[in-house]
């Protein structure tokens, strides 16, 4: 499989789950390490697979569009009106059915034949098209930052979400804009002996990197450019009125 700093070989381990886990185990719930399970997910975990190999949620970032190579990869899949590109950070796997239909060698052969962008996730979406039972991503695989961008803040998430996914930039990264739903992560961080170190790293790195100053300067430049453009529009409208 292709590997990189962003996609190390460990991301493929879940593909070996049917082979490596005990034969009497019929299901397993895979969770990325950047998720928080804040409420009971028993309903999700114990669901009837209804003959499907996987239970998953739509990928919230894919709702805004795929990369060009992904559009090409899923050209035939997208002709199906029921096609939904799912996120593999929260994945309930029907081990019994998967053992009957796929193998690690099959995944490897198929993966090497395809032009994969998000390697493991693209591969799973390609192989299991039409073999997935979908669940509500706002409840079981909520992308924290995208939710915040949609106006869904801490209180909404507290009441409506069971699994929060910190996809992309993490709460402990300093070179990023932070938002209130990150508090779920920090609330758990407070329970660990590393909390003070987390805070120190974020604050010191933020100060030393100059990220905030660069961001403010960038916003000031953009504001000035927009003001100039707006004034030109106003001047043009005045001339047209004459």
Topology:
Layout (H helix, E strand, L loop, with lengths): L16 H4 L6 E5 L3 E3 L4 H4 L8 E5 L9 H6 L12 E9 H7 L2 H10 L5 H9 L4 E4 L1 H4 L1 E2 H6 L4 H7 L2 E3 L17 H7 L5 H15 L1 H31 L1
Parallel strand pairs: 3-5, 6-7
Antiparallel strand pairs: 1-4, 2-7, 3-4
Structure description:
By secondary structure, the chain is an alpha/beta fold. The protein is globular and about 75 Å long. Strands 1-4-3-5 form a 4-stranded mixed β-sheet. A 3-stranded mixed β-sheet has the order 2-7-6. It contains 12 helices and 7 strands.
Largest sheet: 4 strands, mixed
Distance between the termini: 67 Å
Compute the gyration radius: what is it?
22 Å
Strand order of the largest sheet: 1-4-3-5
Query: DSSP strand (E) fraction?
Result: 5-15%
């Amino acid at each position: 499989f292709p590997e990189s700093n962003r996609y190390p070989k460990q991301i493929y381990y879940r593909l070996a789950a049917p082979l490596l886990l005990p034969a009497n185990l019929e299901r397993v719930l895979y969770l990325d390490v950047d998720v928080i399970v804040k409420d009971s997910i028993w309903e999700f975990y114990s669901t009837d697979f209804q003959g499907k190999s996987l239970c998953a949620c739509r990928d919230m970032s894919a709702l805004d569009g795929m990369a060009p190579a992904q559009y090409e990869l899923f050209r035939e899949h997208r002709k199906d009106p029921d096609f939904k590109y799912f996120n593999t950070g929260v994945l309930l796997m029907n081990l019994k059915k998967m053992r009957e239909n796929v193998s690690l060698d099959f995944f490897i052969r198929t993966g090497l034949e395809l032009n994969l962008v998000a390697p493991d996730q693209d591969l799973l979406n390609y192989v299991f098209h039409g073999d997935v039972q979908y669940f509500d991503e706002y409840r079981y695989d909520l992308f924290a930052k995208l939710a915040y961008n949609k106006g869904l803040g801490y209180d909404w998430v507290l009441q409506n979400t069971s699994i929060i996914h910190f996809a992309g930039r993490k709460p402990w990264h300093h070179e990023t804009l932070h938002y209130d739903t990150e508090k779920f992560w920090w609330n758990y961080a407070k329970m660990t002996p590393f909390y003070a170190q987390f805070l120190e790293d974020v604050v010191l790195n933020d100060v030393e990197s100059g990220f905030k100053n660069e961001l403010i300067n960038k916003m000031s430049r953009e504001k000035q450019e927009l003001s100039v453009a707006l004034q030109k529009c106003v001047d043009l409208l005045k001339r047209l009125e004459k």
